[in-house]
Amino acid sequence: MMIRKSGVDQKATVARLVAAVERRELTVFVHVDHAEHAHRAGLELPPTDVLVFGNPRAGTPLMATDPRVAIDLPLRMLVWEDASGLVFVGHHDPRELAVTYELVEQQAILERMADLLDAISTEAAGS
């Protein structure tokens, strides 16, 4: 997992993440607030959010090449707060999908996705 320490609190990091994704005209498909769902179930969890987002123009060629990759798309980014109050932004390296699935000929798309996630996580973390 690629991880960056955020320079701001959880809520601000998530807000920056959403703004960074939307500024790039990507679609936010889902925002999961795990801590809120845990709270509703009577459980405690430090702030933990997952944003699921993407662009069909990038993901569709990958799925057309190997439909199994659809289980790992759209892209996801995690923002969490640890026990000491530090906030982190993390995501998987999409280039690893070429190994898991038959996507070697789609390496250029995976490289662009990796660059995109790096830029978005940098912006969200404020680093």
UniProtKB/TrEMBL annotation:
Name this protein carries in UniProt: Uncharacterized protein (DUF302 family)
Domain DUF302 span(s) in chain numbering: 32-94
Signal peptide (residue range): none
Pfam families tied to this protein: DUF302
SUPFAM superfamilies in the record: TT1751-like
Originating species: Kutzneria buriramensis
Organism taxonomic ancestry: Bacteria, Bacillati, Actinomycetota, Actinomycetes, Pseudonocardiales
